[in-house]
Each structure stands twice: as C-alpha cells, then as structure tokens.
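To the structural biology subgroup,

Please find below the input and predicted structure for Methyl-accepting chemotaxis protein, which we are adding to the shared reference set this quarter. The sequence is reproduced verbatim from the submission form. If anyone notices a discrepancy with their own records, reply to this email rather than editing the shared folder directly, so we keep one authoritative version.
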Amino acid sequence: MQIKTITESIDQVAKGSQELVCSTNKIEETSKDVSMQIQNISLEAEEQTASMEELTASSESLAQLALELQNIISKFNI
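Predicted structure (tokenized):
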C-alpha cells in the first residue's frame, strides 16, 4: 500500500513538473513576442523622430526663405 501511495505521489510530482515546464515555455514565448513588439515600437519611434527632425529642418528652411523673399519684395516700390 505504501508503494502505491509513493508511486501516486511521484506521478503527481511528475505531472506538476510537466505543467511547470509547459507554463515556463509559454512564458518564454510570450516574453519573446513582447520583446519583439517592443523592438518594433522602438524602431517606429526612431523613424518618427527622424521624420519630425526632417520636418523641423524643412520648416526652418521655409521660414528662412520666406524672410529672404520678404526682404527682396520690400525693396520694390509700387
């Protein structure tokens, strides 16, 4: 009878260990997915930052051209 109880206990421990391994694998997969998504978000943020920097530079250049044009136009008398 004791052997049967010990065998059942070992089976339960083995089953619990298998469930733990399965859960750990799922956590690992989820962690990898989250990490990949974070990397994608980071890349997108870098791209947006670069685009904003280009837009800012273009806006500053346009503002400078507008000032130059205004100075040129101000020289003409109507």
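Summary notes: The chain has one helix and no strands. Residues 2-74 form the longest helix (73 residues).

Regards,
Lab coordination
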